[in-house]
Sequence to fold (330 residues):
Amino acid sequence: METYQLPHSDLEISRLIFGCWAIVGGFNWGPQDERDSLAAIKTAFDQGITTFDTAEAYGAGASENLLARALGEKRKEIIIASKAGPADFEPENLRKACERGLKNLKTDYIDLYQLHWPNPEIPLADTLGALQELRDAGKIRAYGVSNFGNQSLDTCKESGFNISSNQMAYNLLFRAIEYSILPQCIADEVPILCYSPIMQGLLTGKFTSEMEVPDDRARTRHFTKERSQSRHQEDGCEALTFQTIAKIKELSKEAEVSMGNISLAWLLYQQGVAAAIVGGRNAAQVRKNAASAQVTLRPALINALDEATRPLKEALGPNADLWQTDSRVI
Ligand SMILES: NC(=O)c1ccc[n+]([C@@H]2O[C@H](COP(=O)([O-])OP(=O)(O)OC[C@H]3O[C@@H](n4cnc5c(N)ncnc54)[C@H](OP(=O)(O)O)[C@@H]3O)[C@@H](O)[C@H]2O)c1
Fold:
């Protein structure tokens, strides 16, 4: 497995990161068997994935806890990236959130501690200062951000504190960060960790029409505002989304690489991308996704994928919030 050296840190992360959200089931994901979750995490490690992304918000600590149970014995061999929620960005609350994370993770340090979403109510420089103090105290090894748009990235830069990464929604069906966030991250040398890299399963080709996508997963701006759990006010672009999926499917057939793996490999070719954080609900899915680390794409195929997905990129525009019209990515 290829690795990537995160700036302002001594962290060498695997370019495929295992995402520990869906393994708690519940909101967005439905029922989940705990044995599958533990097997998924262990399989990721066996396949050479050394970096694991989690958050207190995933099942109120349940995800962090599963990770500790599955790989507690391998603590020194893995990199744990966890997140603090925006309600905890006051310095004192951030310290408490970090302690809760350490307890859930049954460890005495978090490798990469990330701010989950911007919180314009709390001065960012104060929160970054608190992260630096946690680092100085050895509680965390490095810090990063997530869902940070241009304005928040500017503030990070002005504050003088050095962030090691920005975690953003990025995949072939959602290229919004390419408009202005990715260019800024490249210029500021803040590598991107891509979340939802297979668009929550859509890029495996397993849903052939919008009707097949369950409501809790059809919350994204690709789908109409009429979907029961939608939090946006848009008509969506369901037909275009599924036309785009069909085109990617065709290209993946020609290349004889699965759609999911072509999608993951495409991301890892993008300038400014350090890693793709991919979820998997059982060992079989994880094994399939890990195989993408072996995939190389010809430049002509990369260009064809760019072209095939451009109309959808244009239809969804530069709002990098997957779920809301009133963008929280600021
Ligand atoms: N920072 C943030 O705000 C943020 C937001 C979202 C996610 N994340 C992080 O990014 C990670 C990944 O994102 P994500 O979970 O939203 O989406 P994803 O990785 O694009 O999709 C994962 C889902 O796709 C399905 N799947 C995975 N592999 C498959 C395969 N080989 N064949 C068929 N289906 C497959 C599984 O769900 P089913 O089997 O149920 O279809 C799985 O849960 C999360 O775990 C989390 O760590 C961060």
In short: The beta strands are 3-5, 12-14, 16-19, 51-53, 79-84, 110-115, 140-146, 166-169, 192-195, 273-279. DSSP finds ten helices and ten strands in the chain. The radius of gyration is 19 Å.
